[in-house]
Amino acid sequence: MKCWICNKNEANSREHKFKASILKKTYGKKYDKDEMLYGNTDSIYEIESFKSDFLKFPKVICSECNNELTKSHDDSFDIFINYIDTSGVDLSKGNIDFEKVYGTNWIQEKRNLYRYFAKHAGCKIVIGSTKYDVNDLAEFIRGKDNTTSLKIHFQYKEGIKKIIDSIEEKIVNLYNGETIYFGENENCLNYAGWASHNFISTVWVVSPFLEPAKQIEFDKKVEDVEFNSFHNCDSFSDVQTIREYFDIIEHSGLNTLQERLELYKNIIEK
User: Fold this and answer.
1) Is the sign of the CA dihedral 228, 229, 230, 235 positive or negative?
2) 2-19, pLDDT tens digit by residue?
3) Looking at CB atoms within 10 Å, which of 62, 166, 173, 230 has the fewest?
4) pLDDT tens digits, 119-177
5) Which pTM was predicted?
6) Strands 189-197, 200-206: pairing kind
7) Rounded-to-integer distance, Cα 128 and Cα 151, Å
């Protein structure tokens, strides 16, 4: 198949679901295989290499787009992650100030960060079981100033922050939420999912029905962060591992399909 981003080269490259540089920074270049686990709805798998197929999407983009075109987008994501790791207190106040994250060039860097999320969302959509025209995302990634179909929503998950802060050894939460699609029929579908780094989740929604007034404002310096409070509850009564704690908190407010649809529809309407 052709690369969905450039639509001309052969799709010969596998994008990481979590950036390899983030994985290496988190776990080190060498690690015990029981330190890194990858889970999906079926099982939990031990990861023996950063090149593991579990950590990558299938071949849906080309090496040129993956390694050259989107390098500046990856770099903006790295800066964003570094800010998350060092400035959690600021994020807990309910907003992200992109000038604090990136400095004077924050508008372009914010745009590149959202292009990174557009690549992630696009890959998840392309490998799904439905057909969707991802051309708007592709044009945005290739350099168009805006996107008419992507919305981003940030969440601060207090429970995960408390767990990470309370444990002496290094522990990291990397989470790739499942993709769902919804709409009145197969010709008018919306797609949504989320990805987390530690206590910050980026929820993405791709919809062909975004009104111009509700599209992303890249000159908006401060974006809201939804604060998810930590509550002790019966859900934790049978928990035995940290990963199980993380899984419960990741799905807080997203346990049922209806809860997820309400969140995603609200993001579209904002």
Assistant:
1) negative
2) 999 999 999 999 887 777
3) 166
4) 999 999 999 878 889 999 999 999 999 999 999 999 998 888 888 888 877 777 888 88
5) 0.89
6) antiparallel
7) 19
